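Entry type: protein chain
Record version: 2
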Amino acid sequence: MSTAHQLPLGSVMVDIAGHSIDAAERKRLLHPAVGGIILFSRNFESVQQLIALTEEIHSLRQPPLLITVDHEGGRVQRFREGFTALPPMRELGTAWDNDPGEARNLARETGYVLASELRACGVDLSFTPVLDVDFGNSSVIGNRAFHNDPNAISELAVALMHGLRDGHMSAVGKHFPGHGHVRADSHHDIPVDQRSYDDIERCDLVPFRRLIDNGLAAIMPAHVVYPQVDMKPAGFSEIWLKDILRRRLAFDGMIFSDDLSMEGARTAGGVVERAHAAFGAGCDMVLVCNDASAAERLLAALNGFVTPATTHARIARIHGRGGAESPARLLHDSRYLSAVEAVRRIGSRDGDLALVR
C-alpha cells in the first residue's frame, strides 16, 4: 500500500479522461497547485467502479483532494445507474405552486438523497443548487432553475441546502449574480446582461443573500458580463466578487470559478491569464475542464504559486465529512428510504424521472 503524499491542497481543479487514473493523470493530481478533481459521466461505469476511483483519488494525498461533480438532477445528473433519478429543480417549483410547505419538505429530502448517495460513493461535493431566476430566456438554465419568483427559489434552495447538510455535504450556489436573464449560453458565447445593479439586486441577488444568511458554504460566479456594473465577466470581476459578494453580502465561503475552458471566459485571454484574472478577482479555486493540455500549461505556470491560508481554511470547511453510509448500508437506512420514496413522488408525473434502483 503506497503512502499518501503530505501535500497542502492547491487552487486548481482538474479532471480525468476515463474510469481510472493513468500515469500522466496521477502526476497531474500530485501537482502542488491542484486541490480538487471534477468528475463527469465519462468517469462513471458503476457504483463499485466509482467507489474504487474515489478511494484511489483520496489516497493520493493528505489532506485528500476535493472530489466534486455537477449532480443537480434532471438533465444535469452525471451518475445514473444505481443512483436515484433526481428531478429537475423546476419540479420542486411546481410543487411550491401547489403546496409550499410540502415543497420545502420535498426539497430537503431531495438534497438528502443527492448528498447521501454521492457521499456513500466518496464524492465530497456537488455543484448545486442553481439559484438563477427563470426569466424564460435561458435555455442553458431552463428547468434547472427552481422558479421565476426569487422568494420561492430562496425557500426551496434553503430547504435543499439543509437536506444536503443532513447528508454531510455542503451547498454551492450558482451562477452568481444570476445567469437566468440572458439568452446566450456561456459554454459557447459571452452572454451580456444589460440590467442595472438595482434591478439585479432586487431580483437575482435575493436567493444568494438568503442562502448566505443561512450559512452557504460556496458560490460559483457566472461567465456573464453585466456592463452596467463592470465590463468584466462576474468571475473575473473584483467589483462583483470582492465588493459585492464579500463586502456587501458578507460572504466568507469558498468561491469556485466556472470552467475556464468555456467560451464565456475567453475575454480574459489564455488559460494562464484567465486563472490569474480569476484569482485576482477573488476566486479561491479555478476549474479547467475537458482540456488536459490547458491544465498542464496552467500548472506549469503556477509552479511556486502559494495558495492563501484563507483558501485552505475554506476548502477544509467544505470537504466531505464523516457520517457517510456505504451504498449497502443506505439501503437499510429508514430515513434514506423514506426520502427516496418522496423523490419518487416528485417525478411521478414524468416517466423519465422514475426511480432508478
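Comment: The first strand starts at residue 5 and ends at 6.
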